[in-house]
Structures are given as structure tokens and as C-alpha cells.
Amino acid sequence: MIFSFDLLAEALIFGLLLGCFYAAVSIGLSVSFGLLDVPHVAHPAVMILGSYCTFIVAGWGLDPIVAGVVLMPAFFVLGVLIYRFYYESFEKRGTEAGVRGLAFFFGIAFIIEVGLILVFGVDQRSVQAAYIGSSWALGDYRIPYRMLVAFGVALVLTLALTIYLSQTFTGRAIKAVAQDEPALRLMGANPVRIKQWAFGIATAVSALAGAMVIIVGPVEPAMDRVYIGRTFCVVVLAGLGSMTGTLASGLILGISESIVLMFFGASWAPAVAFGLLLVVLGIRPQGLFGR
Amino acid sequence: MNFTRRKVLGAAGAVALGATLPGRRALAQQGPVKIGMSMPQTGSLGAGGQAALVALRMWVDDVNQRGGLLNRKVEFIAYDDQTNPANTPGIYTKLLDVDKVDLLIAPYGTVPTAPIMPLVKQRGLMLMGNFSFQVNAKVQHDMWFNNSPWNDASSWSDGFFAAGKKAGAKTVAVLAADNDFAQNLANGARTLAKAANITSVYDQNYPPTTTDFSSLIRGIRAAKPEIVFVMSYPNDSVAIVRAVNEIGVGPQVQLFGGGMVGLQFTPIMSSLGSLLNGITNYNSYVPGMKYPGIEDFLQRYSKKAAEAKVDPLGFYLPPFNYAIGQILEQAVNATKTLDQRKLAGWLHGNEAKTIVGPIRWGKDGEWAKARVVQAQFRGIVDKDVEQFRRPGKQVVIYPDDYKTGSAITPFDKARSAK
Amino acid sequence: MKFWIGSAVIVLAALGVALSPINEYFFFAAFVVLTFVVLATAWNILGGYAGYVNFGTSAFFGLGAYSAVVLFKGLGAPLAVQIAAGAAMGALLGFGVGLLTLRLRGIFFAIATVAVIFIMETLMINWRYVGGATGLQLLRPEAMAPFTSYTRMLFVVMALMAVVSVAVARFVQTSWIGRGLRALRDSEEAAEASGVPTLRLKLFACVISGALMGAAGAPMPMYLSFIEPASTFSLNYAIGALAAPMIGGTMHWLGPVIGAILLASLQQIVTVTISGEMNVLVIGVLLVLFVVLAPEGILGFFKRWLKSSSR
């Protein structure tokens, strides 16, 4: 393998952009799993569902990002329904049902994946846009525009959600319900409705994340499996409940993956997220900034 | 040849009946001759597979109009393996034990075919190959007959390296998918490069699920190779072509391409359009090559393909799949049996006449004389399917028998050439 | 005693069927069903008895398969040795995963086991000796007499393995080990406090579970005459091994058996009649239905009968 500082620099830049993208696709999970303790292993599958919906909507002539934004309200409703169902069937019945709740979400993930195969087939799908296919020439470096676009959207999304959770009333209620549910109940707020709302937001964010996934590269139904590793790695490394932590750990993952890709080959890159996840779980399960 | 009384009487009866009813042959009460296969109709090879199926079904219709095989109707069964090698053992077991087929055709492509080679060898069955590369090398089945115009890595890479050397290239970068096809080809290519005194400056395998090639292309660029030999499957080929156009491979590259599967499928060619320019890649047939009966076939094929909404040009696979049918027909008619050993014996000792020319096989079941070409894409414009019918869009640079021009080098210059 | 008589009857029946002239495809499909019986039973030892949801069945299964390939390719080892190797490697991996349980519960443990699958798969992708991502064609030896085909022989071998794994699960369930596992499933802290050796029990469950899963994976390369990482480490094994006990019932060793036979047979029928994708849909839908509506599985409907018979 050729090592040069030029290559390293390019790998770092690419890793930065990739990392922010990973942060954005994980932020929905940061809310649903990190804050609400829902074992949402179907999060990547819902996100890929968002990618396919973006593919359809973009096919009507819309820019993919606009398509993603357009899908957000529908996915919000989907999120509320999923949470409601999960709450009624499992959370209400106590901790024994926790194991079954996990199995439930695994089942949902599979159903979504197979549903996508039945409707779209196993072929790869991608979207067209002016910024997909060309790159920004920065001296000797070439930075693909699609990565810049994903980076930009990701940054905006992460900042918006962080501000929402810390500055608005409902946002702070969501954080409160994560920290101390009984206290919140005593204060007269309904924690179930707050959690429902939060889960809806997390799912709506996944729709936009899905749009970014299909901008960055082609998608196929089985992609949710590799994203389980990436999203959970980011969320666990960050520590449950930390939004800014998500950005930081996303960057760590992105840069690690980019360096491994550059210097060790494409055959090791898929394992970086899972390897990092295992290491974090083994050494410091509460993550870097966790509660 | 075994002449049982029943067969003789049956043949006589058929002739008599045939004589009395012109144009309508008596189809025997033995039931149809079942020919079965799995074909990748979705997944990476899907676009090619669908076109190939149209051609095969055309042959089935043609042969049934002529009275079928051994005076029995031919029934054709094809499943979709989704280009997934894990699916083919189960599908072929089902074809043999549940559908009870008489003759087997391999799926299109090395990757779906590799898993069933041990199975057919162990069961002593003949298998008609379908555009796979060196898939029989390890198993060494003596009842394997391929339909593809290449035999070993030399037949494939010689032209590519020859063109590179003519441009003065001394270094090569090898980028290969980690699948049966690309690995077989890459192993051969590496040895040939050494023999031709070309130094390897970059050699990477990538897992078949890779979708983002920008890092790999960056690595290639940094290594400054003069030849870039890519061995890839359709999904990756498309992604690599896009990545090359997105970030570039560097000004010193003379020749790019070589073994990229998928750049011969019409849907991919028309969707990539001008991105293809300058790439030198292998092909089995380009307009202008003279094969007996192929023009007539392509015309008929175009109509059927339009109905089925698949590849309307049908250059790469369909003629060779129709040829499989012709090969089977000739072998069965010559031996008057469906016995696998006898059919294989006949094919090893005789020449089959097909719309892609006469074919003879070597001991390993590959063509005795290779006919694969290397052609350079030039002057391709976007969103135009019909342009590919015209000669000059794919200039054949090797071998001499079919040559229509020389490669334009370096790669960047070829990309803007008309 | 009834159990052992029943087991012997089953093994003899399998042998009889294998020697009869039934259509070959039956054995091709039945082998997969029996594989899932073993996987589900093994899963339940850790998942049902101890409450640790292992979503990494595919890692153990795949490790068993690749161990068999290495021994077959390198030494030409016979099937029995391959299975032993698969079990040994599965046990080793099980020990490693068991150590993980020191720190992790619930979803964290489950996600860690998923990570193990992908890491194992990536290791095999990068190991050229076993074929990398390309895979390996394998020429299996002739079937031993009196079997007419290798697949029939594999069917009987797998039937034997199913009986053995159920015997092991039954032993664990009815012994003090089972009591200890149930105690730690209900409350690990309380069990520790009352002197139950939780770590040793968890390690034991992980090792046994892993060994059985590894053994189940070992015949797979011979079954297909081919091996490659993506399908060998497929998540389908993980979800099947988890869904079968959830559907059949996790309290008793009969649950995984019933669930696996039901689920896997349904899948095979769907594959032959409808399509390959539909069969994964079958697992997903049945899993969700049972987990939501019938948490105790099919056995839950026969609770009273079971309580009186499991001594």
C-alpha cells in the first residue's frame, strides 16, 4: 500500500464528510434508543425505507433532498404509530417484555427489508441530481459534491435537533422524560405522549437521512444490515442521550473507516463500525459523553 | 447407436405421419423434453440475463416449430437466481428432483455457475455453460461446454496488454472484484503482465458489495499506472465508471478497462452514455462483425425484446444464448438420444454450427479458438440507444481478424475523441 | 425413560426414511428443517433459559462451517471430525461471547452478538485459503453405504444431531443448571446475592449453545458442495434461531423443536411453491405475530399438560 501525506489528507477530508453523514443517519437512533430506551434495531430499515420513498418521490421530478423533506411528515406519523404499538404491546407490560420488544423490532426490520425486495427487487436504485457525479477540484484533491451536500444537510440537521432539544419546551420535556420519568409525571405532563412525539421526530429525521443515503450512493434492500453496525456504533460510542456526542462519534467512525479503506483495502472497511462497537461495548459501554 | 424396435417403429410412424400432414409433425406421447436452468433476472447480472432469456425462448419456439427434439415438444423452465450464488444449488436440485428436467443449461455468469459445478459432476450430468470464465478449471468436469468466445486468461488479456504496450506503457494497476469471474481473470492477468514485462504498481481486490469507489480510484491515481485493468461485475462497473468521471485517474493513464462486465448491456450503455468514452473493454460481438445468420437473428430478436421490454439491441448475450439451443439441437439430433454421456461425447468430437459461427471445444469444455474482442468506446453521446447500432462507436482494436482501428491513447485524449 | 425410547424411535425412523425410495428433494429440504431444530434448541439454552438474547447465531454457525472447510481442504477430514471441529470452535467463540455477558445485558448484548457476526464474516472475506468473498467449490466424497446419496446421509446425521441437542437441552432444563439459569433470568442481582454462581452458569450456557450451533454449521459446506461468506453468515440463521423458540415457546425444550419444525417446513414449502423472498417474510410476520399476541408461544396453549409432564 502506498503511503503518502497527500493520500492521508484526502482520506481525512473524505472521512470528515463521511463522519458527518454517519452522525446524521444515527441521530434518529440517538433519540429513539439513546433518550427513549426503545430497542429500535429497525431504525436502519426504516431509514432505507426512507431512501426508497425518496427514490419514488424524486422520480416525480423533485430534487432528492426536497423529496426527503417532503416525506418527513408522513414518517413522523409512521413513527408515532410504531411507538404507540410498541408501548401498548411491550413497554406497558414491564421489563419482562423487554426481550420480546427486541425480537419485535428485529421482526419489523426483516419485514421492511423483505417488503422492499418484493416491491423493488434486489436491484440497486439511485437518484440523479446536478451535484451527483462531479467533484470539487481543490488543488490535487477531488471532493465529490454529493459528499459535500450530504455533509451540509447532516450538519444542519444535527444542529437543528440539538437546538430543538435544548431550547424548546417540548424538546426539554423529551430530555426530562429520559432523565426522570416519575418526576415528570408528578409535574402533570404525560410522558407517553411526549415519548410518542419524540419517536415521531426521530422517524421523520430518518426519512431525511434516507434521502442522504441514496444521494451518497446506490441503495439496495439489504443495506440496513450494515447500517445497524454504523448507527449503533455511533450512538453507543457517543453515550446514550448525547446529541453533540453523536456528531463527535460520527466523525470518529467516519475518519476511521476512511483511513482503513484507504490503507487496508475495501475488504476490511465494513468491519470497522462493528469492531469499534464491540471495543466500546467491551471497554466503556457508557460511551464518551453518556449519562 | 442403439436401435430398439420401438424407436424404429416410432421413427417410421413419425415419418409416415409427417409425410401425410405437411407442416404439422406428430409429437410423441412420451411427454415433453424438459430443459431447465436458473437465470439471473434481477441483481447485478439481471439486465443481461433478461435479454438472454428472450433469445433462449426464441430458440424454444423455433425448435418446436420444427417438431421439437426427438419428436417431443421442448418445455423450457427458468428460475431467477438473483445473481446470488447461494441460490443456485437449491434451484438446480429442485430442477433435477422436483421438475425432473432432461437437459441443463448453466445460469448466465461465472458467479451463479460456480456453486453447481461440483453438483453436476457428482451427478454425472452435462451442463451447457453460459458466458462464464474458467469456472471449470478446478472441478474439471468432462461434460461441460461453454458458449463464450474466450477460453483462458490469455485470450482475454493479450489484446489489452498489447494495446497498452503499443502506447509505451510499462506499469499496470489491477482492480478486481472478489468474485469467481474477476479472480480467475486477475490471476491470469497478473502472470501475463509479468511475462510482458509490465510492472504492477497497484493490485487491489474489493468485496462485491462495495458501492463507493472514490477511495479506490484515489489510490489508483496516487500509484500513477499507465494501464488500469479493471475486472468487475455490472453494479461495480457502473460505479467505477462514474467514480472515474467524478474524480479522474490521472493524466498518465493510457488504457482503462479490460474486463468490466456490464458495459455490454444496452440499458447500462445508454444510461452511462458519454461517461463510457475512452474506455477499452472486452466484447463478444459489435456491429460489423460477420457471423452467419446473426443479422437475421438480431432483427427477429429486436421485435421480441421490444415486446418484453428488455435490451432492444441484443448484441452481447442473446446470439450466444440462441447458439446454446442450436448446439443442444444438433447434439440431440445427431445422437438421437438424451443420454448425457453420448451427447457429451458427440460434442467433444464434432463441430457445432451456430449463428455465432462454428464452434469446437477443447478438452476443458472451452472454445478451441477464442474470438473475444477488445473495443474502445468513442464519440458516445448521452441518451441515445440507436447510436450503438452504428459501427465506429466501439472500435475493435484486437484481434487482427476483426480489427477496425487502433486505440487512441492516452485515456484522457480518447475520452474527448470523436 | 420415555424420552430415550422416543429418541431412538426418531433416529430409526430417519434411517428408514433415508433408505426408502422417497424423492431426493425431500432430504434436501428436511436437512434444512433439522438444522433449524438444532439451532433453535441451542439458542434457547441461552435465550430462553437464561434470558440473554443472542442475535449472533450466524457467527457460530458460520464458524462451524468454515472450520469444517479448513479441515476438509487441508486434511481431507471425514464428516465426524469436521463436526467435532465445528463444535469445538463454536464452544470457543461461545466462551468469548460469554465473557461479554459480564458487562452487557439486553439490547447491548444482542447488538454485540450482531457485531460478532459481521466481524467473523469480514475475517473470512479476507482469508484467501477458504476462498475469500469468492468462495470455494468443494468436491465431497462418495456417500457411505448403505446410503444411496450424500444428502440422505447428511439427513440422518442431522437427525442424530437434533436428538443429541434436544437431549442436552432437556438435561440443562431439568438439572440444577436450569434452575440456576432461571433464577438469573428472573433477577441476576438476586441470584448472585443468594449464592448462585451466575458467571459460571452463563459461561456454561454460552459454551454449550455455541458448540451446538457450530456443530450444526459443519455439514453445511458438504450439503451445498460450495461455501461463501455472505450466505454462510446470513442473518437469516440468526432470526430463524430466535423466531422458532419465540413461536414454539421458550420455557421447555419442546418449544424450539415445535417452532423450528413449523417455521422451517413452512419456509421450504413457500420456497418451492412461491419464491425465495417470501420465505423470509414468513419468519418476520410469524415472529411479530407471536411476540405480540402469544408471548408464551405455542406451548403456552398447552401449559397445564406440560407442567404435569416435565419431571
3D structure, described in words:
The complex is a heterotrimer of chains A (291), B (418) and C (311). Chain A is an all-alpha fold. Chain A has a domain at 27-224. Chain A has eleven helices and two strands; from the N terminus they run ααααββααααααα. A two-stranded antiparallel sheet of chain A has the order 1-2. In chain A, β1 and β2 form a beta hairpin. The mean pLDDT of chain A is 87. Chain B has 418 residues and is α/β, with parallel strands linked by helices. Chain B has two domains: 33-149 and 291-359, 3-Layer(aba) Sandwich (Rossmann fold), CATH 3.40.50.2300; 153-283 and 378-416, 3-Layer(aba) Sandwich (Rossmann fold). Helices cover 40% and strands 16% of the residues of chain B. Chain B has 14 helices and 14 strands. Chain B has a seven-stranded mixed β-sheet with strand order 7-6-8-9-10-13-14, with helices on both faces. A five-stranded parallel β-sheet of chain B has the order 2-1-3-4-5, sandwiched between helices. In chain B, strands 11-12 form a two-stranded antiparallel sheet. In chain B, β11 and β12 form a beta hairpin. In chain B, α2 (46-65) runs parallel beside α12. The radius of gyration of chain B is 22 Å and the shape is globular. Chain C has 311 residues and is an all-alpha fold. Chain C has a domain at 25-234. Helix content of chain C is 75%, strand content 1%. Chain C has helices at 2-19, 24-47, 57-75, 79-100, 106-125, 150-174, 176-186, 188-193, 198-217, 220-224, 229-232, 235-248, 254-273, 276-293, 303-309, and strands at residues 136-137, 226-227. The mean pLDDT of chain C is 89. Chains in contact: A-B, A-C, B-C. Chains A and C meet through α4, α9 and α11 of A and α5, α12 and α14 of C.
